[in-house]
Write a structure and sequence with these properties.
Blueprint: E1 11-15, E2 20-24, H1 29-41, E3 47-51, E4 60-61
Parallel strand pairs: 2-4
Antiparallel strand pairs: 1-2, 1-3
The structure holds zinc ion (ZN).
Zinc ion (ZN) binds at residues 15, 17-18, 42, 45.
Length: 76
């Protein structure tokens, strides 16, 4: 059973105000752009990097962040 422990860890970026998170794929260009946008959108929010296993169940995964075009979910 000990062999199972080397399972890949995955971190996520999570906002505790909006209850949203986005996966972090180190070295992935698209992912790092998404993290940058996520941090930008959740500026001044309680954002934390968590292990995948620590994500609260009511959090929603965000795989695409829209910026510009007048759409900002935080304006609503
Ligand atoms: Zn937020």
């Amino acid at each position: 059973m000990d062999g199972e422990r080397s399972e890949k860890r995955m971190n996520v970026r999570a906002c505790f105000k909006c209850k949203e998170y986005t996966p972090i794929h180190p070295g992935n260009q698209v992912s790092s752009e998404l993290i940058k946008k996520f941090d930008f959108l959740h500026f001044k929010h309680p954002v934390q990097t968590l292990d995948k296993t620590e994500i609260p169940k009511n959090f929603k995964v965000i795989l695409l962040v829209k910026i510009g075009g007048g759409f900002n979910p935080h304006d609503i």
